[in-house]
Design goal:
- The complex is a heterodimer.
- Chain A is mainly alpha-helical.
- Chain A folds into two domains: about 80 residues, no CATH class; about 70 residues, Winged helix-like DNA-binding domain superfamily/Winged helix DNA-binding domain (Arc Repressor Mutant, subunit A), CATH 1.10.10.
- The radius of gyration of chain A is 16 Å and the shape is globular.
- Chain B is about 40% helix and about 30% strand.
- In chain B, strand 4 and strand 5 form a beta hairpin.
- Chain B is rod-shaped.
- The chains are: A mainly alpha, B alpha+beta.
- At the A-B interface, helix 1, helix 2, strand 1, helix 6 and helix 7 of A face helix 1, strand 1 and helix 2 of B.
């Protein structure tokens, strides 16, 4: 494989945080999500001789598969953790100020209340930075299905989130 | 965050417009949240795993193969020299003297007890063969040489002769470096 370190490091720097956030949809514990990202990232990197931007959905798919595998093997623990997910979810996003952290906490609680498929759609679209076509490719779904899930997720979040979270600063 | 590329209706009404505008504001707000950066050790773990992978695969394989072939040739050459020396030493033994005893294991059945009672025994060398390096008891490397001879058992009065083929298997301990 003719790949140099800077190649994978560039991909890592660009996508690691969003991949960890995506993996946390199944593995709320950060360490577990990082394990899934490691497994998925390495598997993806081995399978692509020279990855291109168009391969990004495959990277998310690899992490998704790794996260699902890990979640199966740790199901008992995950069940326990999901019961306290709302408390642990505050760490899903960074916040510079107390207000930011409180907002992140509120968003985390609201997102945790969404059905998994809606959560996936919104995480891939907003924080994963994928287009609907890329998100559909990641999930192996129709693009209209993913767009509908995304719209439904936003509609639900508008009701779940306080008004202060709705408008950009 | 770019505007949402949700497929649009052909005939949007005001409520639909308002809803989409609210969705766009909310998505822009959400996009402002930065996912927590993973720990530094994750990058290190991936680096280690990818580095291990680079040591194993196809690029390195030809060098390994070339090295292995060279090593085998060296061992074969060494073995040939050892076998030649052993053969020369065996040939240099003066006639009438018994060969120097070497640690040997007989691969064939020992000569018949009756033959052992015959008073005179002569050996007629047939040939040597080199079976290469083998591991004795899984741990000790040794070069395996086979020496084939014909034992000629002469009756004391010279009226009878019995010929018995014999094969000596010689294990020469070697050191791997």
């Amino acid at each position: 494989m003719a790949k140099s370190d800077p190649d994978w490091q560039t991909w890592y720097d660009a996508h690691a945080a969003r991949l960890v956030l995506y993996a946390r949809q199944w593995l709320p514990e950060r360490a577990d999500a990082e394990d899934a990202v490691q497994a998925g990232f390495v598997k993806f990197w081995r399978s692509r001789a020279t990855p291109e931007a168009a391969d990004l959905p495959l990277l998310f798919t690899a992490v998704r598969t790794a996260a699902l595998d890990l979640a199966k093997s740790r199901r008992r623990r995950v069940d326990r953790e999901q019961r306290v997910a709302s408390g642990a979810a505050a760490a899903w996003w960074d916040g510079d100020t107390l207000a930011d952290r409180e907002r992140a906490e509120a968003v985390a609680r609201a997102i945790a209340a969404l059905p998994l498929e809606q959560r996936e759609a919104i995480v891939l679209r907003i924080w994963g930075g994928l287009t609907f076509a890329e998100a559909a490719r990641t999930l192996g779904e129709n693009i209209n299905t993913v767009a509908a899930r995304y719209r439904a997720a936003l509609a639900r979040l508008r009701h779940l989130l306080p008004e202060a979270c709705h408008d950009p600063d | 965050m770019t505007p949402i590329d949700v497929p649009r209706d052909d005939h949007p009404d005001d409520a639909g417009h308002r809803e989409r505008a609210a969705d766009e504001r909310l998505s822009a707000r959400l996009a402002g949240l930065r996912p927590v950066q993973p720990g530094a050790e994750l990058r290190a773990r991936i680096a280690v795993e990818l580095a291990q992978e680079r040591c194993e695969p196809s690029e390195a394989a030809p060098r390994h193969r070339i090295g292995a072939i060279g090593e085998r040739l060296a061992w074969a050459a060494g073995g040939a020299v050892a076998a030649s020396l052993a053969f020369l030493l065996a040939g240099a033994v003066p006639a009438g003297r018994e060969p120097v005893a070497v640690a040997t294991v007989a691969a064939t059945a020992p000569a018949e007890p009756a033959a052992a009672r015959l008073p005179r025994v002569r050996e007629e060398p047939v040939g040597w063969s080199d079976d290469g390096i083998r591991f004795v008891d899984q741990l000790t490397p040794a070069r395996v040489l086979r020496r084939k001879v014909i034992e000629r058992h002469m009756a004391g009065d010279g009226t009878a002769e019995v010929r018995v083929p014999r094969e000596d298997v010689i294990f020469l301990p070697v050191a791997l470096r």
